[in-house]
Sequence to fold (488 residues):
Amino acid sequence: MQQKTPLFRGFHRKLFGRPPVSKNAELQRGLEQADKLCLRQLGALLGGLLPDALVNFKAEQGDNSRKRIYTVMVTFWAFLSQVLDADGCCVRAVSRVQALFSLRKLPAPDEDTGAYCRARARLPIRLLIKAARFLADKLCPAIAHEGGRLLVMDGTDVTLPDSKLNRAQYAYPSGQKKGCGFPLMKLVGLFDLRSGAWLATVKCAGRSHDAALAWRMLKHFRAGDILVADRGFCSYAFIVALQARGVQVVMRLHQRRPADMRRGKPLGRGDRLQSWGKPAQCPKGQHPARHKALPATLPVRVVKVEASEPGYRTTHIHLATTLMDTSAWTSAQIAALYLRRWQVELFFDDIKTTMGMDMLRTRSPHMVVRELLMHMIAYNVVRHLMAQAEPLRPLESVGALSFKGARDRFAQWQWTVWSAPNGREARERCAAMLQTIANDPVPQRPGRREPRCVKRRPKPYQLLTKPRAQMRELTQRQRRCRAKPKAA
Fold:
């Protein structure tokens, strides 16, 4: 009979051995080590940009309350690395988890991707929204001495896999045959022009105009912001709603509003202070009560800008703005501010081309939302790395840092950060990675013109005009006969 006594505890262990450890306790210890390991990797990259809701997440009940290898932290880490990966498949994400766990001698998951995909589906959407907003707010604080945030907004389309669930919620493009195309998801994104941070986004399942989705973006604006947008958002009611929140706008004049520079009070050459009247009829898609509550008139400053390019005819652009102070904002400054609107096209190019969000991969609407939020987080992670690398740039370098270069360098350096034996070594390796990012600026190329043309010819395959199960492939002889019909 074993006698337990507070004396000679080490001697007692040598005689009778250690008490047996239950499998649940061993699994719990391994999961805690895995969570700490993934949290350390994210901390080396993001520092204090992780919200407490993610770091201290604990579910007492529900899907995430069970003890699994793919905890919320492990799944978030694997999902983020998958989105930042150039390939982005689930097999590589599972292999990355296996490699990380085996490096620390932890029980690695199975090669099957089913458990990982189910773990992604269990990620709480509210938790991802909190993480995305927390990271965006840290990247883009309201800077008092610069007059608040300088924002830009625009819309784009994202293609979804042609699955039954996606087709039930998202529509095909107009004129597309069923089973021959891909469903589209409409997006409107809000970005910060100074840091490039992706602040917010709204989506739509149907065919809707960008201006209709912009009303759902109002809650993300703050007093003192300046919004730069194209003519699609230049409406009477939307400008009034933004002014009520203390937001100033610089937009191109809508094509339906006459650009008469003879009206209003002159403020300078090509600069007029005009008074717009409330539309007589309620616009389509606007609530009648909201239209009735609009003021009768709206003072707007209209600026005429000459855009000249060598070899082309000089064009005139009319801008509508609520920046009335002519001493603080001259017409040239307003024109320069609107010309920065083109950066939003480059932001979408980084998201859709560099990060591969032009076509999402998930095949159900509830996973499409999670993938979209994770792309938003991953994009801001790269912007965070670029912001950290900005002070490390050589003095002689000019131009902005390369987004693609930052993402490619992270893909090559991430394993060195993960394999660090401790947090201090991981931060040192991350600092070396930031130095390589700082050494890769994009040179300034004024007047550069890149037409949207394809140089590589597509292969002469048939177009899918029927569902794939009903499509019949033509032989090579039939193709030649159809291409060159016999003369009568």
Q: What stands out?
A: The CA atoms of residues 195 and 387 lie 8 Å apart. The longest helix spans residues 365-389. The longest strand covers residues 297-307.
